[in-house]
Structure formats: structure tokens, C-alpha cells
Specification:
The protein has 17 helices and 5 strands. Strands 3-4-5 form a 3-stranded antiparallel β-sheet, with helices on one face. Strands 1-2 form a two-stranded antiparallel sheet. With 364 residues, it is mostly helical. Keywords: Membrane, Transmembrane, Transmembrane helix.
């Protein structure tokens, strides 16, 4: 890496604030003069894209991200959270026809739970339209298990593999059904280990950032439905909460799909006390004027609306940067809606740890 670029990335880090929960005090340690986060991120991101000393670039980005992500910030007000949630509902009203073309059951689980949490008549009606279109008319649809604990639809592993379902979906279906003949299948058994998605020290959260969140969702389904040993499941849930919270402190890729997902799974699993106020603020600020969220965080404008930026789903393809436009979509907005609905249910801010509770905040 050229000397000027290395100096820009490694010199003059911003001042660091740290919060001490035991005393309630905030301390500040000097890191030299404050520099532009945007400039540094652009320089380092370009270095990463061009393959110029990528290891150094990643290390620098991780350091900057930790300073930014752990900085002390006031918790957004209850009114801000409710307003953000309501704007997201407006996005669903505007985009209802397009949303109903997507039958992704996990997203509709979020919509349904958001409707329950907010007691919103429109969201309840929207979920009913999804149910009538994709479930009521298909009594053998295996995803009945996600919405009805009494479902007796039989799940066949060969059929799931024939559909090329992602491994985490097969894990979800086991966790939702507790069908014992599925528990030893490799797609399921691998998610019953704390290192299924790699480790923090090996930067697994960078290579496959959505893996841990999907694993935690599946484990929560297992808790709710009573699959396997409860104590073992609780231990795994707590381990995944720790890993996801740590990943959120170090990840430098801005407000993209998986970072919203990290916050919502912490909130849903009873660990909203691990969600730092700065993360909530960043997610609120990233909401677009129309109420939606985009799975793209631009860092360098390329003209004509295009930009170089981080893309959330890039993690599945093991790349970092893409060229695109920040356009809201159903997948990211459903998660933003669910997160704000969960947080709005606790208007006083973060809540004590409740990861032992197998029931979600929103009831079936």
C-alpha cells in the first residue's frame, strides 16, 4: 500500500469514549485529532477492492469500526422508535402488491409478529392476504409449521434437498417441527454447534455474516417448540448472542441487511440490552424517506445514482464491495419493521437479559 494511503488509514484515530456500567461514568482517551470517517473508509475500501495489502486494510477497517460502533450515544426516544416503525408500515402500504409476490415465510413471520406487537390492523390484514395466498390454499406446504405449532405436515428431507433449500431453512423446519428423523441430517446437526459459522478470531462474521443470525433464529424456534435438551439449547442461544453482539462491535460494513438482522435477533431472543444505542440510531438514520431500508450502504459516489458500497448479501458470496444503488426492498425493510416493533414494545429502552424464556415477546 502506498505510504500516503497507509498513513491515512493508520494515523490520527478519533477520540475514544468508553462507558463504565459499574459507575455510570464516561471516560475519553485521546487518539489524536478527529479525522473524517468517510474519507478514511473510502481510502481503505478502495485499497481492499484493489487488493492493495487487503489484510492491513481489513485490520484498519476493523479498528475504525470498533471505535465507531462502541462509542457512547443516547438511546433513541420511544417516539423516534414508534415513528420509524410507522414509516415502515407506510412503505408496506405503498409496496403491497410487490410484497405479496414474495412468499418468503421468514419475512412473513416477521410481518405477522410485527402486527401482533404493534396491534396494527393493516399489518394483520396484510399477513392474512399472505396466508390465504400461500398457506390456506396449500395444506401440504411445510411452512405451515412456522405459523401453526399444531401443524402435522410431514417433512421429507429428500424433498427439501430437491428444492435446493438453503441449509438454514432445513434447520428451521426441524426446529419448528421437532421431527426427530431430521435431527441427525448434516444440514441440521451442524447448526447444533457453536462454531457452525466460524469463529470471531477467524473473522467468520465477515465471510458469512448472516449465518450466526439464522442459527440463532433456528435455536429460538427450538426453544419455543421444545426440541432437544432445554439446557443445551439455552447455552447455545447465549453463545450465539455473545458472538453476534461481538460481531456488531467489529463489523465495518454500515447499515445493511445483516446488521439490522443482528439487532433484531438480539431483541427477539431477549437480549436487547446487548444492542448499543449507536446501532439503533444508525438504523433509524438509514431509513429512507419512503419508510424502507436498502441492503446497500454507499461509501463512494460514482455518478448517475451509482455508488461503491457495502452490500449485505455480499456475505453469502464472500465478497465485500459492490456497485449499486440504495433501493429499499422487502427483505431488509421487513427486518427493520420487526426490529422497531420489538423495541417499541419496550419504550423505556434496553431490557434485562431474558434468553432463558422460550417464548417470544410476540405470542403465537
Amino acid at each position: 500500500m502506498p505510504a500516503v494511503t497507509l498513513a491515512a488509514c493508520t494515523g490520527h484515530l478519533p477520540r475514544l469514549q468508553s462507558f463504565r456500567p459499574d459507575t455510570g461514568s464516561v471516560t475519553t482517551r485521546s487518539r489524536g485529532r478527529i479525522m473524517s470517517r468517510t474519507l478514511v473508509t473510502r481510502v481503505c475500501a478502495l485499497g481492499l477492492m484493489l487488493g492493495v495489502v487487503p489484510a492491513v486494510t481489513v485490520i484498519v477497517l476493523l479498528g475504525i469500526a470498533y471505535w465507531k460502533n462502541t462509542a457512547v450515544a443516547p438511546y433513541p426516544t420511544a417516539e423516534e422508535i414508534r415513528s420509524t416503525r410507522d414509516k415502515a408500515i407506510t412503505w408496506f402500504r405503498t409496496n403491497e402488491a410487490a410484497v405479496l409476490e414474495d412468499e418468503n415465510p421468514a419475512l412473513w413471520w416477521m410481518v405477522r409478529d410485527s402486527a401482533t406487537l404493534s396491534n396494527n390492523a393493516y399489518l394483520k390484514g396484510l399477513y392474512s392476504k399472505y396466508y390465504e395466498r400461500y398457506l390456506a390454499s396449500r395444506p401440504s406446504n411445510v411452512w405451515h409449521h412456522m405459523f401453526d405449532q399444531r401443524s402435522n405436515v410431514w417433512i421429507t428431507i429428500d424433498a427439501l434437498r430437491f428444492q435446493n433449500l438453503p441449509d438454514y431453512n432445513i434447520f428451521f423446519l426441524y426446529a419448528l417441527s421437532c421431527q426427530t428423523d431430521l435431527q441427525d441430517e448434516p444440514e441440521v446437526s451442524k447448526f447444533l454447534s457453536s462454531d457452525a459459522c466460524g469463529t470471531i478470531t477467524r473473522l467468520g462474521f465477515l465471510r458469512n455474516p448472516a449465518c450466526e443470525t439464522h442459527q440463532l433464529i433456528g435455536l429460538r424456534f427450538m426453544q419455543q417448540r421444545g426440541c432437544q435438551d432445554e439446557a443445551r439449547t439455552i447455552t447455545l442461544v447465549k453463545t450465539m448472542q455473545d458472538q453476534i453482539a461481538t460481531a456488531s462491535e467489529w463489523d465495518f460494513r454500515g447499515v445493511v441487511d445483516f446488521n439490522i438482522q443482528r439487532a433484531l435477533v438480539l431483541a427477539e431472543s431477549g437480549s436487547s440490552n446487548r444492542i448499543k444505542p449507536r446501532w439503533v440510531r444508525s438504523i433509524i438514520d438509514a431509513q429512507k424517506a419512503n419508510g424502507g431500508w436498502a441492503d446497500f450502504d454507499p461509501i463512494l459516489s460514482l455518478g448517475q445514482g451509482d455508488a461503491l458500497g457495502w452490500s449485505g448479501w455480499s456475505g453469502w458470496r464472500k465478497t465485500f464491495l459492490q456497485i449499486g444503488k440504495p433501493k429499499p426492498n422487502f427483505h431488509t425493510t421487513a427486518q427493520g419493521l420487526y426490529l422497531m416493533s420489538l423495541l417499541a414494545a419496550h419504550v423505556s429502552g434496553p431490557t434485562p437479559d431474558d434468553s432463558r424464556n422460550p417464548k417470544r415477546i410476540s405470542l403465537e
